[in-house]
Each structure stands twice: as structure tokens, then as C-alpha cells.
Amino acid sequence: MAFWMSSAVGLAVVNLALLGVLITVWLRNYRTFRSPMLLGLLLFAGVLAVENVVAIGGFLSTEMIYAGGKTAMYTLVGLRGLQFLALAFLTVVTVFPSGNLLRSRVSSREEAG
Questions:
Q1: Domain residue spans in the chain?
Q2: Are 37 and 21 in contact (CB under 8 A)?
Q3: N or C end: fewer C-beta atoms under 10 angstroms in the chain?
Q4: What gap in Å lies between CA 4 and CA 48, rounded to an integer?
Q5: Cβ of 19: how many Cβ atoms within 10 Å?
Q6: This prediction's pTM
């Protein structure tokens, strides 16, 4: 069970790192454009960051709650994994809005082939 607990905490930490990147980009853009959409994204990311911090604290302080319930732990790790995927997609489209990440891979394949 320690592996699943560590996995859940690890995913929450990675999610916090991705949220840090998103908050940095969106805050910089909000300072430039003052768009209500960017303010909404900042608030969204802030709430998710708080939720991940609380989750880490909960995982570390209430381990015994999950010790008897494998299904509960699998569900929590699965939810953290889904949140990671969502944040990873959002981070890629935020940091590379023109699709440069995808284009650079395609052009390097074309040059090699």
C-alpha cells in the first residue's frame, strides 16, 4: 500500500509543478492583457493548487484511512493520474500555443527520412 500512497503523493507534487508553470504563464499574460478569461484561468489553477496541497497533507496524515481499502487507494491514484494528464495537455497548449512542439518533431522526422 505504501507504493500507491507514494504514487498518489508523487502525482500531486507533479501536478503542483505543472500548475506552477501554468500560473506563471497566465499571470504574465494577465498583466499584459487584463483579460477576464486569464483571470478565470488563474483562479482555476489556484484552486487546483490548493486542492493538491491539501491532498498531499491528507495522504500523509491519514494513511491509516486508506490502508484497509485498496479500491479507495486505486481510485485516488487514478484520479491524480487523470488530473496529471489534463494538466499536461493544458500545459503543452499553453507553453506551445502555435504547436511548435509538434512541428519541430514532424520536421525533424522529415529531414531524417
A1: 2-112
A2: no
A3: C
A4: 21
A5: 23
A6: 0.82
